[in-house]
Protein 1
Amino acid sequence: MFNYIHAEFYKLFRRKYTWIMLILLLLGELFLVSNLAYAAGSNPMRNFTFAMEAVRIMLPVGLFATLFSADIVFAGQYKNSTMKNEVSFGLSRTRTYLGKLLSQILLSLLALFAAMAFYSILCWLLLPHSGGVLPGLQILAGMLLSALPIWIGTQAIICAFLFSLNSGTAAQFATLGLLYVPSIVIQVVTMITGLSPLTKVLLKINPWLLDVSLTDFSYGLHSDSMRLWIIGGFWLLAATATGLYLFRKKEIK
């Protein structure tokens, strides 16, 4: 498995796609922090700690970021017929599947570390430290650790769709559908049915949805990080088991 992941990263670090996405991410952060620094000139509350706390409302963006990291790793293997080559070469499907999933997660973690390090350094350089630096970093670390399992669960979902569907675009749309359509349907149905037994059932399901969990956390509606780890772990296991089963049964052309 280590050799497989090492081979994946050898390819990843040599793909322009990887570096272009990272540069765009860092440029976006530069733009954001520059605006915060401009606002700090007239509002002393726009300090380092405020910038760290502001990351909370950007946490749901991590769900979309998983689509890019998965696409970078999977690299259209059905479209380019490279998946057939891997399987024909004798690599086990389990090793291929888990190797890709772990590569996705590791790439995301590296990108997250680079992005947050760059963001923190920019904020330290351009913003006042009236609220202290260490408290702000502690806030940032706590938020990222809480959101991490939700992002990993989403990685498992997009990985399952990429291995199960022949089209990468279809896999991305399927992932977005699974992430956001159930919560929208539940909202609409509960508005229509009122306080019915169906509403009670749906309201018990709703907190287990990844987008709902992360959005609620980003708006401070709950702060139980253990709950997020349980939800993320559930989706990681469920998506991985389903995706691996379908990939083992799939005929690769």
Protein 2
Amino acid sequence: MSLMKISETDKMLTEFYKRLVRFNDKARDKAEGDMHKYLENFLHGASFAMYSDSDLGNLCIDILKRSMKEKDYPLMQAVMNFMNKSNVLWNTQNGCDHSYMAYHIVNYLSSAEYENLYRAFPQGLPLASNGHTMNVHAANLILCLLYKDDYDRTAIEDKAKKYITSKQPKWDRAFVACLLGILEEDTDLISENIQVLCELLARTDVTSFEKLQCQFAYGMLAIAYNNLPQDKYELIRMPEYKNFDLGYMKWLIEGIFTKESLIEFRKPCEILNIFMSSPISRTLIHQPYLNEDVSARQKKQFFMDCDRMNDELIQYVMTKGLK
């Protein structure tokens, strides 16, 4: 089932569906009957199409604008979830460790259950060090927040405090400051920087869709709600800006999540319905250069193990009745 009627999407997505069919045909030809290989090729192509197709993007912008105007929170959640999930389901080599997931999981939590944070950051991960500085600090704060006894909290907090007073971009520092505020239960720090996330979002390198609603603010507040005592959470000053809807935030923390997809994919691409309903992969990392003749620094570097993560997703899809 989908929230949007096929008649509402067909006209705008004609070229998008043609593109998906081409990806599907090429994947079947290359697979030569190997179902795993077929899914690997098709899901890779389809995930790229869903992330980059302008017709699909424009449709989702229109739907989000409508849901915002009508205060249709189930539809708002569904369209944000569709766009965010298509971005995190399939993983491509990014040259980073699990720090890469910090930015994306906060965005995703604007429309998904909080438990997904544990899939993005399963217990046992080392501290992040290989990635964008903002994401490294954010990832380590999340690890400390989830598994308090497993890491040196003081060292993590001290490094984060130094970062948020640096000359790095203000939005980046606000992103880290929100997580630091949650960890330290500093509601003033959270309040000040949630406002910054909303106000400066338009100046950051995000899509037109993301600029309509500050999904990062919703995600941060979802993390805060699930980790702060209730009386502390209630002290947070909610952002006052055009891209933040307090009603949606209240609806989100009530835990009402529609299980219907925004769009129902038709034959021959109906496998994407299973793909989009799949849980996001548990983050896996590895050291690909550990036994290579490289510098000691390279040997120690962790990277996301995208091949294994995608394989887990393929196995899930295959068990859900692929014919």
